[in-house]
Amino acid sequence: MTIDTLDELFVHKLCQQYYAERKLVDALDEMAIDATNDRISEGFADHRDETRRHVDRLETVFDEIGRQPEERTNELIDALEAERTEIQRQIGDDDLLNTYYLGAGMMTERMEMTAYESLLTMAKQLEMGSEITDPLEANLDEEQSAYRELDAMSTASDLKSLWNRLTS
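== DUF892 family protein ==
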């Protein structure tokens, strides 16, 4: 398959983001269960629920452009998931696993923010209306908020003992 137009590129990237969000629902569910820090676990569970709404919004975008929702492999998400699975097997310490989850979550949020920024840039260049841009902007806003929450957790006072134990 060749991509010859900006519209085709937009659809391709939309399909990849749809794939990513659907995969992340499962990964966030697993991380919410496996995290031993209640704050981290609750954060992942909340974001899992948000991610389900992201999937719904992307399905709305597909409807608005007259296409059936379609997944296209997103190799970045697949690589992050493979790394998570491998590192999770290698880490035996709960605090260390929680620390890894924070970093992995922040990395994933940054990738998702970039994906939504790119989709929005293309949608604006294609002069797509608010029925397309509003759901994408809502997803971007929630990804940015999730990133800020993870960043705040990484420096929160209830996690300071975790950092101190891991660095001493």
